[in-house]
Amino acid sequence: MKNILKNALLVLLSILYIGCKKETSKKPLNVILMIGDGMGLAQVSTAFYFGKNAPNFEQFKEIGFIKTQSTSHTITDSAAGATAFATGQKTYKRAIGVSKDSLPIPTIIETLQQKGYQSGLVSLTPITHATPGAFYAHVKDRDSHEEIALDLIDANIDFFAGGGLKYLKRRKDKKDLYAALLAKNYQLDSVALSPYNIHKRNGYLLANDGLPSKLEGRKSFFQDATQLGLDYLTEKEKPFFLMIEGSYIDWGGHAMDAELLKQEVLDFDKTLGVVLNYIKKHPNTLLVVTADHETGGVSIGKSYVIDEATGEKQEEVTNVSINFNNDQHSGTLIPVFAKGPGAPLFKGIYENNEIYHKILKAIHNK
Ligand SMILES: [Zn+2]
Description:
By secondary structure, this protein is α/β, with parallel strands linked by helices. The chain has twelve helices and 14 strands. Strands 5-6-4-3-7-1-8-13-2-14 form a ten-stranded mixed β-sheet, with helices on both faces. It has a two-stranded antiparallel ribbon with strand order 9-12. The protein has a two-stranded antiparallel ribbon with strand order 10-11. Helix 2 crosses helix 11 and helix 9 (221-235) runs parallel beside helix 11 (258-281).
């Protein structure tokens, strides 16, 4: 009798154990990858000097650095950088979702779709631009926007928001890819971030080319598109991978325009606030924030009052100045900030393509 009781208890315990295990492993990890194009440590630092409040960057405890060189050049570009994140392989400059031998390689979105994941892309550039493009397209050169747009049709991205309408609607080959997307169960909007349709995929192409920069009058598109994407992907109750690109930090560097850089970093930080708020409510989410490379060789230096007549430096003032080394990408290590399940994996110093492998490891370890 004692033995029967003991056995019954054991069976009960194992049922409970299996039940609990099922409970915790039931929900696969959501992943949000935020890329600040051209955002090195000096760019991040501007948020600490020029923001009104403490930057959201300050909320991270798990921080690492990546080495960004491509297979063809020490100083990478956005295409090779994004392809490394998206495919786990380093490749040559200008490559979109192809290996250093120009062969197509599966992207993280394609890999995760096999596991039942949804996917989302938010960018300020055309959705066919190098960074978003590398997550779904496979072309030899980043300038082949029309070819990249063709890949978008078959990519089954569940939610995307950005610009690039002309690469779908006003094409050299006269194909109407806008209509092609509608035929693939998309709800599309080219005017505003209208409410999504939960029964369809949703695409927002709100500019012919790129969206305006902050200095050109972009309002809250970046935060609103991010929130809309998160709401939609969450309501579908399937795990998701969402890539969010702050595209114009890079422009600030290329234009050597301190004000543009500052405003774009602050807007990125504000969007980061939206995402951090989301993961507080949805802790089953890994957030990784990084950049493809730094742009401008930016440093934060002393600031002086300049004598307008002579051009000479007068006294030093408390504010700092943003200095540019040149108008090109640079080769500095790039910070990686992580939060949520798997975040400790992102500590240390490693190659940019490791980001892909670490994300998959975090999903696997869950
Ligand atoms: Zn870039």
